[in-house]
Amino acid sequence: MKKIIPLFVLVLLGVLGLVFPSIDLSALDKAEFDTGDTAWLLTSSALVLIMTPGLAFFYGGMVSKKNVISTMMQSFICMCLMTILWVIVGFSLAFGDDIGGIIGDPRTFFMMKGTLGNVAWGALPTIPLVLFAMFQLKFAIITPALITGAFAERIRFNSYMLFIILFGVFIYMPLAHATWHPEGILAKFGVLDFAGGTVVHMSAGWAALAAAIYLKGRKSQTHNPARISYVILGTALLWFGWFGFNAGSAGGANSLAAYAFATTTTASAMAAMAWIFVDIIRGKKPSAMGACIGAVVGLVAITPAAGFVSIPHAMVIGLVAALISNLVVYLRSKTSIDDTLDVFPCHGVGGMVGMVLTGVFAHHNVNPLVVDNGLFFGETKLFFVHTVALFAVSFFAFVGSLVLLKVTDLISPLRVEETDEELGLDVSQHAEAL
């Protein structure tokens, strides 16, 4: 009977599509879409989507050979589940009419109501509303996928699917609303998050730490990465897609998009080199794995700052993020916390470093949305706002994720059986193998 329930729920969701076809036209009198902006956001949406398969290769190459398919599948399934959730109610929860600054009204865009026709999101009047919705969907897809590296090689696939749905509804979408909706509590407080350092990377990083603690360690924590070439390919796809992630967040084909493009690649390059040089100081050889991890840390750290800081300061952000994340990876290895692929030290810490340094280096000349310049320029308000928000978001994401992990575990056990873990999740969860 339990096996029937998921399909039954999916059929009910299909019935919703018949009951709520959302074919009513909406229109704005003065909406004039720009073909260049629209083309760039369509391209950016595709670029951000390719990041999730890129992440699948990035994580898949790092795990044991017997867990490659399961690890990659955990990323791939996010593209399916989160899309369905987003279309039905997720976009409304993130960007619907404000409820208390913390969540959107689920009725606003229920089943994508009101997105057909000549209508736009208020802050981006030159692109169709449905394009804005699809662009934001890609962020909602990759965020739970980032978490998977923390509990790789030991989680039941069915339970994982339930957890990412709960995470999307109760962690990601409230944070997206609070940060990116004009009436959101963090937005009104003055938090600047250009492309998701807070919403995406901090939420995923803290959820990853919570999951690593809750699920405890693997029975065997020694393994060789299955395919370093997968890691390199995944990093290349992530770096490529990140231009849509950050430059696309400018909202159009404009000078700010070009500048965010430049800060993104600069920070990543700096972080990759810093990671390699730190490894050399520790007596290691310069490795492809280290270069790839460093590059991703730089991309993570520049995400909240990409459209708010100068290119030279992007270099500083990449450097600082790599040094701190590398140190946290080392310190984590001395503990009993089994964050399999160091998601918290790289994504969580990288996101926090980026958030703090946005409060240090943001400047009005880069982006007029910066009302108060960063600490580096002698002003303290933005830095204070970001520091307070960092603690608030960290507490919400970590504690909230622990609660959701417990709820999921009560409904469907999270941890695989010991024999299944030893056999490998590719075979035990999917009956497939490399």
From TrEMBL:
Pfam families: Ammonium_transp. It is a multi-pass membrane protein. InterPro entries: Ammonium/urea_transptr (IPR029020), Ammonium_transpt (IPR001905), Ammonium_transpt_CS (IPR018047), NH4_transpt_AmtB-like_dom (IPR024041). It comes from the Bacteria. PROSITE patterns: AMMONIUM_TRANSP. Belongs to the ammonia transporter channel (TC 1.A.11.2) family. This is Ammonium transporter. It comes from Sphingobacterium puteale.
